[in-house]
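Final report, closing paragraph on structural work. Over the funding period we assembled a curated collection of sequence-structure pairs, and we close with a single example.
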Amino acid sequence: MALVQLPQPAGITISSSPHISNSLIAGTTYFHDIQLSSTNSFSTKQITIPSGPFTGYQAIILIPTTNNLRPHLLNLPTELRLEIYRHLFNSTPTVTLSSTRPPTFQTDPPNYFSASNLAITNVCRQIRAEVLPVVYSERKFKVEASLIPDFVVSSFVNRLGDKKVLLRDVEIESYANSGWARPEMWRVLRECTGLRRVRVRVHAVSGEVEGYARFFAESAKVWLEEGRLKGGRCRALDMLEFCGLPEEWDGDGGAEKKLKECIQAFMGQKERKAVEDVLLATRDLAIR
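Its predicted structure, as stored:
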């Protein structure tokens, strides 16, 4: 018997050993046990060789499965696939959202969210699930929208839909205190449950740390209350970073520490006021 391989599947092992048939007269008939093994799938076909020096011999043709001859992304280890995805997007560590007419905004690079740039996410569900965290969780998203970025942040997060939970790092340029609280931006940021850092560049219109702290505590109330106080600390406040603070705010431990202490103080005042209001209402009901 001849063994023909067209072509040989990768990693195949072939072994054979001759045996004398016990059912026939010893010395006249032999047969072989042939064992084939491979990590790749293949099929076999038995033929009789029609011509040539082996005419009349029985032959086994090994036919590798076609798919195994083609490299496939999903055949690679997950770690290698992730490195490939990162190679596609690592030229963009920061995505900037800028606007002169909120809530519309432009991105830099301009094609970051384009269908062509994110085409790989449409290959299959598994690749999409692996690529999206690279696209959103491993980038910093920086918002540049004059002094009031609220509308741009809200528009961007709402546009993301379910993908907003993948955001990890958001930077807000020039957040100015106004004469009224602006809670909408912080309401949508609270829905970004995967956030690990929010960096805010302070633009202090009032000029006083207490005035800015009061405005921030009122505007970001829904955000600050989300990771509520444990052991006297607010997780949501710890997640915030402030930069661009006026030099005159500097105190023991720096201007940022002073601002956070003022914000937490105003939060505490509101809590105490809320408790006092409840106690007062309870007392009035008891008197009635």
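The helical segments are 78-89, 125-136, 150-160, 184-190, 209-219, 221-224, 235-239, 255-287. Confidence is low (pLDDT under 50) at residues 1-12, 20-26, 274-283. We thank the funder for supporting this effort.
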